[in-house]
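All the exercises in this workshop are built on plain-text protein records. A learned vocabulary of local backbone shapes supplies the integers on the structure line. Once this layout is familiar, the rest of the handout is easier to follow. An example says more than a description, so a record of this kind follows:
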Amino acid sequence: MNNAPRGLVSALASTSRVNQVASRHLLRPSAALPALSAPPRLCSPTTSRFLSTSPPRPQPSSASGSTSSSTSPDEFESLHSSRYRGQGAKPDRPPWYRSPTLLLLGFMPIFTFGLGVWQIKRLGWKLNLIEELEWKLKKEPIGLPKNINLSVLPSFDFRLVSLSGHFDHSRVMFLGPRVREGTIGYHVVVPFMRDGGGDEVMVDRGFVSEKSLIGEGSQRRLKKDESVAPTGHVTLTALLPRISPPNYFTPPNEPQNNRWFHADPEAMAQWASTSPRGAAQLSSGEHNDDDGEDSYTPSAGVASSVKKMLGVQSGDSSSTTSSGEHRVLPVFLEEIFEGYDGGIRVEKGIPVGRAATIELRNQHAVYAATWFSLSAAMAGMFALLVRRRR
């Protein structure tokens, strides 16, 4: 041992001293340990509780064994209430019959169903009316009596009438504008002087295109052509139509300007009875004077003056008043056209009358189907919403 190297002995002595120092530090109480022995907290205790993945430890109960102070009496009552349905449950809703929207939606199917039933009844009424009018059209044409009773005239709607006499195109009226097969034009209404006496009536001769007319406004008239405006004796068949009232969008008639947008037999008859156009055209020489040479002699003029003073009219005095005015009854007829050349007649400017058919609009079946469909759709919506509220 005396021969051992001196350096090895020094190293062993140093190691022994280090072990002694370490043993003394380990045997000291924990209060004397350095402050860095505990790791620093990076977050608050509340935050660390949410960030921790391990389940929270149960808190020890108090010595008295009572309920934890973290649960209040109100919360405890709500947990044991009969209205509590658990977490995520939908809130309570009032019954469907307390919702105004659902009540209105429940009423609409009943209302629309009633409208559908009403349209079914209207369909039956319209079919019966069409059948009745077709039965009237199949009857033989009747002749108008000399003295027409206007009070019973509506009972003869859609009856065919046979007429013979003369047109007076000096007092023509144009009803429209109207459209026929894409062509704009007017209906020609002319006073008709009947054979055998009696007051004049009005005849709607039919449709003419706008380009077949001459003049504008109150001066509008037909072209002077015998095929367009016949002046001789004619025999025709006409229909006594049912005059419908104008709708909201139809402008009012202007009798002072001879502008007629809808048929008004009363106003048109009054205008034709007092219209000065006939006298004006006669004085201007538009009509031929075929009365003979005696019409221009002084004796003929004196005789005419005496007749006027006595209230006696030469010729047929039944449709002319003592003042020279033509009396026109508010009887509106529509001339019947039976042929297949209506388009050619329109091109030539010849009026085209109506066909002897019933032209009543019948859409009640479509309306009924629409109302019933709406009723079924809204009933389904109502049932679905009521089911969701339960």
In short: Residues 121 and 317 are 51 Å apart (CA to CA).
